TrEMBL record:
This is Dipeptide transport system permease protein DppC. InterPro entries: BP-dependent_transpt_permease, MetI-like, MetI-like_sf, OppC_N. It comes from Roseovarius albus. Belongs to the binding-protein-dependent transport system permease family. GO terms for cellular component: plasma membrane.
Length: 302
């Protein structure tokens, strides 16, 4: 069984994983410390001047040192909006994955342990869910939500709606993974011993079987955070995600898309580069974790 110490050694010895981890750590700290280190608060109207709109990066002749990456059409510094927007994108991605994991792990554990008609019903429900596109479901629900309520209400609850919609739409991936792991664990000797001493099914599932199914869940979670962030970015680009006054990386890309051919390329370019770096770092770390934590691959290395 692999230990945390050996896992950390493997991480340090893999240059791709190490670089991805450093990039992700920098982005997370940048987002977490945005209120303290950002040159400007893009949510504070007192700090925004429309006369500063569409200023190029500071190294251009027309640029200013207080806006290193330039400004958008509202006069907000691109660097500041990226810092705050990265935090919102990470919050949505992590929040959606928590919702996915709670639903998927619970239903997958019950389906795998109980079997019978419960297993058949839950897996058919998962099949129906997986046959529907997450983006399609999100577009329909968010379009109805935005049409039903005014812009202020939508802006207040957009982040919670995105977390719930993306989370509920993706639970079958966790459920199927956990179910397959439970099917391989529930007939082992330690589970039989737990049943013999009279433990109820609830304790057998949650205290004995579940801890032995968390490795694939950890791998999936890393990749699912990236997928949730990409889904949110796509929805924001379509105008159904975060509002412009509370920018995520996706809404920042959308806000400058119409201006990219007019010369204000930096409004879209820099948020897009940060989004690509974030998604790439998460996916590479997920692939590395899958390879390291896969018992068959470890045996092949040995």
């Amino acid at each position: 069984m692999i230990t945390w110490r050996s896992l950390f050694k493997k991480f340090l010895s893999d240059p791709v994983a190490l670089c991805s981890g450093i990039v992700l750590l920098i982005l997370v700290f940048m987002a977490a410390l945005a209120p303290f280190i950002a040159p400007q608060n893009p949510y504070d109207l007192m700090q925004i001047d429309i006369m500063d709109s569409e200023l190029p990066p500071s190294w251009h002749d027309e640029g200013e040192a207080r806006f290193p990456l330039g400004t958008d059409e509202q006069g907000r510094g691109i660097l500041s909006t990226i810092m705050y927007g990265t935090g919102i994108s990470l919050l949505i991605g992590i929040g959606a994955v928590i919702v996915q994991a709670i639903l998927g792990v619970t239903l997958g554990l019950i389906a795998g342990y109980k079997g019978g008609w419960i297993d058949a019903f839950l897996m058919r429900l998962a099949d129906i869910q997986m046959s529907l596109s997450t983006l399609m479901i999100a577009i329909i629900v968010l379009a109805i939500f935005s049409a039903t309520f005014d812009a202020n209400v939508y802006a207040d609850y957009a982040i919670f709606m995105l977390i719930l919609i993306i989370g509920i739409a993706e639970w079958p991936k966790y459920a199927r993974t956990v179910r397959s792991s439970v099917l391989g664990e529930k007939n082992k000797e330690y589970v039989d011993a737990a049943r013999v001493i009279g433990l109820p099914a609830r304790k057998v599932m949650w205290k004995h079987i579940l801890p032995n199914t968390l490795t694939p869940v950890l791998v999936i979670s890393t990749i699912q955070v990236a997928e949730a962030i990409m889904t949110e970015a796509a929805l924001s680009f379509l105008g159904l995600g975060m509002p412009v006054d509370k920018p995520s990386l996706g809404s920042l890309i959308r806000s400058g898309y119409e201006l990219i051919f007019s010369g204000s390329w930096w409004i879209t370019f820099y948020p897009a580069m940060v989004l690509i770096a974030l998604i790439l770092a998460l996916n590479l770390l997920g692939d590395w974790m899958r390879d390291v934590l896969n018992p068959k691959l470890r045996r092949g290395e040995d």
